[in-house]
TrEMBL record:
UniProt keyword list: Hydrolase
Record's protein name: Class B sortase
Matches recorded under InterPro entries: Sortase, Sortase_dom-sf, SrtB
Coiled coil spans: none
Signal peptide: none
The keyword Aminoacyl-tRNA synthetase is assigned to this record: no
Length: 222
């Protein structure tokens, strides 16, 4: 049984704080949130969200273990040890995605499952052909727009800087967007934005990570 069947899914413009605006209602489609979280959490209480990137194979539950930050790196949603693991965040990140930056991790599987198809964004056209990331929560849906797909160091992102500080936040965005890869320069990433970083490995570069970065542009009730 596939994960989908289990779930029964019935320019980067670095602007200052003075230019910060409320999250706009974007032109991104408001997709229906049909995730049955009650059914999913009966199977595994660590499932708290669902990620979907239309135009890619990314369409999975998101999990978070309360004590072992690497548990779902090598455990599936049913607790089976080994690949392909799961899409997951660490307990340092609030489950409502309210932090300045939330990092989601997933394996770069050879068949493009899990976060393998993030590497589609090595083609610059993909940033405009499949620009939106949907995070479904039990009570609302968050929409992010992808602005960066780059090769980054394997630094531990949550400790990279203090994302609450304007100077740190903007420096991170500048470094990210200066990294080798593709940038959609039409997407604004002001201080105070909420970022989603999707991180996976690079087969021939064990000391680097492939990051797909997105900024929250819209949200709506379920």
């Amino acid at each position: 049984m596939t994960v989908g069947q289990i779930a029964m899914r019935t320019g980067i413009a670095a602007v200052s704080a003075a230019e910060k605006e409320e999250i706009p209602h974007s032109d991104a489609p408001h997709l229906e949130n049909t995730i049955d979280f009650s059914a999913l959490q009966e199977k595994n209480a660590d499932i708290y969200a669902w990620i979907q990137i239309p135009g890619t194979l990314v369409d999975y539950p998101v999990l978070q273990h309360s004590t072992d930050r690497l548990y779902y790196l090598n455990h599936t949603i049913d607790g089976t040890a080994g690949l392909p693991g799961s899409i997951y965040s660490e307990a340092i990140h609030p489950k409502d995605f309210s932090a300045p930056m939330t990092v989601l991790y997933g394996h770069n599987m050879r068949n493009d499952t899990m976060f393998g198809s993030l590497h589609d964004y090595e083609d610059p056209d993909k940033l405009t052909d499949a620009p939106y990331v949907y995070i479904y929560l039990p009570d609302k849906t968050l929409i992010y727009q992808i602005f960066a797909a780059v090769r980054f160091s394997d630094t531990y992102l949550p400790d990279y800087c203090d994302y609450e500080k304007e100077s740190d936040f903007m420096t991170f965005v500048k470094v990210l967007c200066s990294s080798p890869g593709n940038i959609n320069e039409t997407v604004e990433v002001p201080y105070g934005s909420r970022l989603l970083m999707m991180s996976t490995c690079i087969g021939n570069a064990p000391n680097n990570r492939f990051l797909v970065g997105a900024v929250l542009i819209d949200e709506y009730e379920k």
